[in-house]
Amino acid sequence: MLIKHRTSIIALAAVLAACSANPGPAPVEQAKPSKAVATTKTETPDEPPRLSVGIDPIYAGLNPHLLADDSEFVRTLAQLVLPSTFVDGQMNKDLLESAKPVTPADDVALTIRYDIDPEAQWSDGTPITVSDFEYLRNGIANTPGTLDAVRYRAISDIRSANGGRTVFVDFSQPIANWQTMFLALLPSHVLKDEAGFDKALREDIPASGWRFSLHSVDRSRGVITLHRNDRFWGAKPAQVETLQFVEVRSLPQAAEMLRSGQLSFVDMTPTEVASETLELIPETQVRTTVLDRRLQVTATTKLDTAQRASLASMIDPATLARLATGRSAALEVEQALEPKEPQPEALQALGRPLVIGVDPSDPTALAATRALVDVLRNADIPANIETSDATDLFENALPNGELDALITWTPAKNRDQYHCDGEVVAANLSTMCVPEVEAMIERMIQGNATAEELAAAVAELEATQHLNTVIVRDVRLQALGRGIVGPNPSLERWPAGLTSLAEWTINKGQ
């Protein structure tokens, strides 16, 4: 019995020894290396760095073709994410194989043929085709509050061949600078089912066709994140893996983030002491630029000529500019050749309150409107503010004759601001149609008149009709901190705006 028991013990020991020599999988032990690897990954210095740019808060959508959405940031985002037929006046050889006029049909004034590169695609793999040209044309031509509608309305037809990769655009009249059309194409395959062109890109850009793709828009944190577009087929992909735009809501925040290196670049609206503050930060360069975008008061045709002249006489651009922006420094205000003498009589005799429209989401425009209403009321002119989002103002309040005037930012060129829009108001917010000016616009579009000639005709019109009064132009303060390698060591020699951003690289030594 004892021998048998000892034998069992020896056999058991042998089994245990064998198990120790060839241990099986140990789930608990495998979990430890997994945790260690994860920790190492988050701390590794080899993780791709990101480039961070400080910007103004975003109050509207991201559609670069809408008057309501236009801003320096939206323009920059479009240049980074959306494909254009021409870039800086040169054909985009990544998007197109060719773009040229061809012999038009008898009833067509001009036909442009675009041959799209076979590899051109959106970030979800969908090819860029004629559908994207059609979507952009129809949206701009038929939507209130769009930019460049006058030329897109001259398109009579868009045809295609080669499975949509060859596009023929027919025009009902000659177009001199057709190379500046079809910029920032939109992904029609994901936007065509939206409620409307004015709703497109309200919150994000769902597909990219250029060097970066929009990864996320965090409105609550004020952070917009772009990633390098892995499906970009061109010769020069983005130079950085991740690009972040961070809203800076105050000068102290911008200055501290530059000092700490959390931001490498800032593009913001200046404040009273912003330039001086940022220039004091070591290794920081500062410059100021002025854009074609401007805040202006537009009087509509609901007022007659005398009433519009009365309103214009009550506007002191320098005063409104200071009150609207909250600063007296870095203001770009157009000075009148002769000071205007206030002439309130025509508006005092209006017999009802003057109604001025404004989008309340824009604090500068809203402040200007409130200041102007105070000026009018102090002159015994009753005035009310109609607040609504810009889209509603352009689509409903303006064409329905509910507004006497409105205050908004606009980058619109003279050809758009004075073009006879008809039932769909694009950028002519006054809604006035003057046949002589319209004829000049048509001649300029065709290449038979210059922009200077049109500007002279517009100045003459404004002198008698008092439609648009510019309050202030959009001034940008840009600060270059540490960590960026740009087009030139001197910020002053960089291209205007943020047009070169796709070519910036990160200075790993900083």
TrEMBL record:
Pfam families: SBP_bac_5 (PF00496)
Domain of life (superkingdom): Bacteria
Limits of the Solute-binding protein family domain: 106-275
One BP annotation, GO: peptide transport
CDD domains, sorted: PBP2_Lpqw
Molecular function GO terms recorded: peptide transmembrane transporter activity
Gene3D superfamilies according to UniProt: Dipeptide-binding Protein, Domain 1 (3.90.76.10), Dipeptide-binding Protein, Domain 3 (3.10.105.10), Periplasmic binding protein-like II (3.40.190.10)
Protein name: Putative monoacyl phosphatidylinositol tetramannoside-binding protein LpqW
Organism lineage string: Bacteria, Bacillati, Actinomycetota, Actinomycetes, Mycobacteriales
